[in-house]
């Protein structure tokens, strides 16, 4: 199944009411945000909320270190880096028909998401640590280390004003923590998409 076919399948399931809350997650620079945006742009904006979870990654994660690797800082691959209770509260609020105010980020202002919209797409790494029962379907994205680094450099230096030297220096640490803490979340997904070498391959298909 190609990307276009998967998007068409999801649009059909969403418009028919089979999927009302969709989770899209994966490690950094795996392609999840791009896919979520492509899907969101096709759907009726009057009926769909897109909740991005990056703002729920706590800025206080530098205060703790991974037990197995005390010389490393905590990346978003560890559950402790995420404000999961707050995120789950906001998802449940939207599902219950209540509005929420999203958290402001340096690259994106806060906005009101309307609880009157019946469809919710939740996108970001935090989804991998949330109870699966919150979602009607979850999709996980993965990519190889070389593709991840290429995308991270392109995104973080332009969109997020990141320093390329810092991104390069931290890449091995990020990948190690992904393999140790985050990769196991991939088994929870209904669909696993591998975008290594900028290809689009579905590895797990339970739709």
UniProtKB/TrEMBL annotation:
Ranges where the Phosphoribulokinase/uridine kinase domain occurs: 22-195
InterPro entries: P-loop_NTPase (IPR027417), PRK/URK (IPR006083)
Pfam families: PRK
Protein name, UniProt field: Phosphoribulokinase
Organism phylogeny: Bacteria, Bacillati, Bacillota, Bacilli, Lactobacillales
